[in-house]
Amino acid sequence: MLIKKQLFVCLLLLISITVSADDGYRLWLRYDKISNIALLNKYKQQIIAPAIVGNSTIITTVKNELEKGLRGLLAVNYTATDSVYNKTTLVIGKAGNLNLGFTVIEKTQLKNLGEEGFLISTTMHGVHKIVIAANTDRGLLYGVFHFLRLLQTQQDISTLNIFSTPKIKYRLLNHWDNLNRTVERGYAGASIWDWHKLPDYIDQRYIDYARANASIGINGTVLNNVNANATILTKQYLDKVAALANVFRPYGIKVFLTARFSAPIEIGGLKTADPLDAAVQEWWKQKVKEIYSLIPDFGGFLIKANSEGQPGPQDYNRTHADGANMFADALAPYKGIVMWRAFVYSQQSNDRFKQAYEEFTPLDGQFKSNVILQVKNGPIDFQPREPFSPLFGAMPKTPLAMEFQLTQEYLGQGTHLVFEAPMFKETLNADTYEKGKGSTVAKVIDGSINNFSMSAIAGVSNIGSDINWCSHPFAQANWYALGRLAWDYNLSSEQIATEWLQQSFSTNKTFVAVAEKMMLQSHETLVNYMTPLGLAHIMYNGHHYGPMPWGNTLGRPDWNPVYYHKADSAGIGFNRTITGTNALGEYKNEVSNLWNDSNKCADEYLLWFHHVSWNHIMHSGRTLWNELCYKYYAGVDAIKNIQQQWNSLEKFVDAERFIQVKQLLNIQVKEAVWWRNACLLYFQTFSKMPIPANYEQPDKTLAYYQSLRFPFAPGN
Ligand code: GCW
User: Fold this and answer.
1) What pTM value is reported for the model?
2) CATH class of 170-421+453-491
3) Which of 233, 460, 607, 656 is 20 to 30 A distant from 284 in Cα terms?
């Protein structure tokens, strides 16, 4: 018995010296004690008696966060104070409050930090202290989170000279959360908003959510689904929204709502929602007034109108501009904004690709100044790879916001490891040539090309009630990447992956090198096993889970996968050149010239723009059919390789998350094989060509894959 007990104690000891369990709840804000003793001691000498000058709810957040961070990372209990100025080595405060006798140059530098920027410097006016300064409390909040990130990622802080300002003004999450707590395209459990218990019950999650967002610079959140329910605008629900806004305010986060266009009818008792009707306009004015009386810093509305069955101005023969401007007028007195979505594809075009451009470019210049048009990264719908939306570069008189999708509706949903930063950057770095070479999408978005002060990037949230927030431990990285890139789109995917891994898992060099490689390869890998060479939209109807390139039963042609790939005995792909729908004509010539010749078009976009023969010779020298096989097989091989890389990391990762990721990668490999086999067997019915004999042949028939059904797939 005694021996057993001793053994047990030994075992416990053993476990405690390996990596301790982690449920992922703390995200990238783990603040575990720094294990490198030399560095820990150095930090302790460098950070003495921090002083925080100022007094506000945000300053309280800053103090709490700094204390929490230092308590965890350095295992020292500091109480930040503003009195022991001479002892301190770390001074935090608004520039105007910091009696440090800044030089003229320093004062200009400080001014340039604007409303949200910060500096972290060890060289200010020779004071030899670490100074974190900003013009606003929000700037300090971001500065302190940045400082804690330096410690968490174990940077040398002896000489610091960091000036940081956000490139984008509105950095937002968009929740597609319904009032009944289901989440459209959500794969991480129920909505975190417990509307029923609000406003009286404040879940700790709301606070932790706000902290996480603030730590990466996210400053706004749209709480509810764009497929909107007018109930959110009733007094009963606005009180609940106000309670959330109160939680978020000390973290510099504003609340926004989606507005259902027909709300004046549904909850206002009016007969119409016509945006030019005086009673309708007045109803919205009063509604907005009511909102601001409860939430003085309310951000504004996000609106999906005349899209996928949502009501909108076109129901009254009015334009999108008429609709957006009605809201803009109601919000303007309070400095609220309208984010009007450009995701439309009603039936009148010969190519869904072209529709947003066709509907919106004629309205350029007609929107009020507090309207921003929110455009998805690509012309169709968050496919694994899309060319950039042709609206970017075509609306010089309208500020455009970027909408990315964090939730992985088309990227393996809840089970695939896909790091989205490389995909986001592919779009942001694309050149629109709007004002000549170098007019990247990023510069269209940040307002610099057309001189707009309003700019926005939104990420459709992947957050739910799962204990680790995003279900897949690596999906947290996409939330993280959105915030970091919205702050500074020049950050590289490598840097974002590295710092996320260091904070979320471990700073061990081997671990970071291997895991970073996995992350950086993951997006291209998924594209290869799902939709290589410019294929798109070949997933199941409705829930969008799994391959269904044969899909051809829905009422509208552009709801069906066959519409998108157009495979036939001659070849495959969508001819969008001048001999086809000429969607390429929506881009500037410099862009369309890159893509309009099937022999020159980059492989990634080939089938987006061309219907090419199965024997078309690719850049590799292979025929199109063989290249298609090659890519699908390469995708599966790559994910198997990623799986092996992960398995080599067991000793660096806590058992809980190691096993989670391992199981998820097993699913991912299985599903990659499923995508490959189902797609190739189906396309083979047209190409009539063999899958090269050196590849492992599909072990199931096409009929088998076609028989699969998933009636309860999530997120639908
Ligand atoms: O990607 C599609 C989704 C819909 C979504 C729509 C949109 C919220 O399948 O679920 O609706 O886009 O962006 O409005």
Assistant:
1) 0.96
2) alpha beta
3) 460
